[in-house]
Amino acid sequence: MPLQIDDESGEVPVIYPEENKNYITLGVIDNGIAHIKYLDPWIKRVHTRFLKKDTSTTHGTFVSGIALYGDKLENREMVKNEGFYLLDATVLSATTIEEDDLLQNIALAIKENHKKVKIWNLSLSVKIAIEEDTFSDFGVVLDHLQKTYGVLIFKSGGNGGNFMKKLPKGKLYHGSDSLLSIVVGAINDERYASNYSRIGLGPKGTIKPDLASYGGELLLGDNGEMIMKGVKSFSRNGNIASSSGTSFATARISSLATIIYQNICKDFKDFSDFNPTFLKALIIHSAKNTDRNLSMEEIGYGIPATSTEILSYLKNENIKIFNGVMEKNKEIDLDASFFEFKKDMKVKITLVYDTEFDYLQKGEYIKSDIKIKDISEAGRNLTRKFEGILARNKKIELYSDNDIKKNYTLIVEKLN
Hints:
- Strand 11 and strand 12 form a beta hairpin.
- The protein has 416 residues and is an alpha/beta fold.
- The chain has helices at 58-74, 99-113, 137-149, 246-264, 276-286, 296-299, 307-312; strands at residues 6-7, 25-30, 43-48, 85-90, 119-122, 126-129, 152-156, 173-174, 182-187, 211-214, 217-220, 226-229, 231-234, 240-243, 319-326, 329-332, 344-353, 370-372, 383-391, 396-400, 406-414.
- The protein has a seven-stranded parallel beta sheet with strand order 3-4-2-5-7-9-10, sandwiched between helices. The chain has a four-stranded antiparallel beta sheet with strand order 15-21-17-19, with helices on one face.
- Helix content is 20%, strand content 26%.
- GO terms for molecular function: serine-type endopeptidase activity.
- It comes from Fusobacterium nucleatum subsp. polymorphum (Fusobacterium polymorphum).
- It holds the Pfam family Peptidase_S8.
C-alpha cells in the first residue's frame, strides 16, 4: 500500500511547551519528522543514521501530527490531547531497506535513548504476514528490546489492499505478533474496522491486535479506483493533509499512553516509576467494542477511553488496582466493603503481566503464564479481560505453571 497524503485547506492553533512544566518524550521510530511550525517546538532531539537530504519525513511528520493534534484536527475528543516532547528516531531513509538493517536501526534507537524515552511509536511494518504457530523475528526482537530496556512499544498492525480485489483481509504483518507491544488496528468513521486494517489473531491464538482507533478509510470505487476518506494531520511542508492507515490509529494510542504517564510521573529525571504493565492494563481496561460488535481479530479489546477518563480510574472507589510481582501463586482479597456487603457483584477484571520468553522458540514462547482460577484459564496470553459475577467470599486466585518472576497489574471494577 503506497502512502498517499493529500493536502487539505485550513489551520489549527500551534501549541507550545509551557515554561517550568515537565514533559514526557514520545519516541517516533519512523522516516523522520519535518520541523514544521506545529511540531518544531516539541522536537526534543533527533536520532538518525542518515543525512537530511536522504530523509523523506512524510510519514513520521503525519504520525507526529496526529500524536500531538489528532483531536483538534478532527474536531472530536478521542484522546484528550496534551503537549509532550518528541524524539525523532529516523530509522528509514528515502530508499529501500533490508529487514535486518531496519531491526538494527530500531534496536540502536531504543538502546541509545531508553533512559530518557520510555514510550515508542512504531508505525512501520515488514510486509510479510504473521504465522499460526511461530513468532516472527521482528516480533521477537521487539519483545527482547522491551524486556531489556523497560520500554513500551505501540506497533501498527499493517495495511492491506485485498479489499481492492474483493478478497478477505490478510493477517497482521511481522512485528505485530510482539506480545509486549500494544498492536493497533484501525476503524473508520462508521465505527467498523477499516477495509485495509489487517487482522489477527497472533501466533498460537494470542490476542492481537490489542486495540484499535480511528485511522480513516480506503474504499473500492465503482470504476475500480481507490477512494480515500482520510484522517487529518500535517504534510512535511506544514499544511493540513489527510491520509489513511493503521499507522495513524497507532499514533493516537501511543499519544494516549504518553499523556497518562505524563500525568502520573513523579520522576521526570530518571523515570524510575515507569511501569509498562500498569499503563497497558489501564488502557486495555478502558477499551470497549464499538456499537458494530466487531470481532477480536479486527480490534482486539476495542477502542480505548480518553486520557481524562482513564486517569479518573486512579481516584475511583469502584476500581481497585493491584500491582505486584508473582511467581507461582497470588491470592487477591477484596474486602467485604468493596462488595457493599452483598453476596456477589458484577465486575470487570483486567490482568496484564510480563514474563520471560523462549526467544529461540524451542518450547513455549511464553515461558511462564498467569491464569485466573475459574475466571480466565484458556490459552497462554499476556493480557486477560473478563466480565462476570464475583462472589463476595471468593478470593481472586492468580496461578502460574512455574515460579519465574512476573510483574503484573490486576484491575477490578464494580459494574452497576
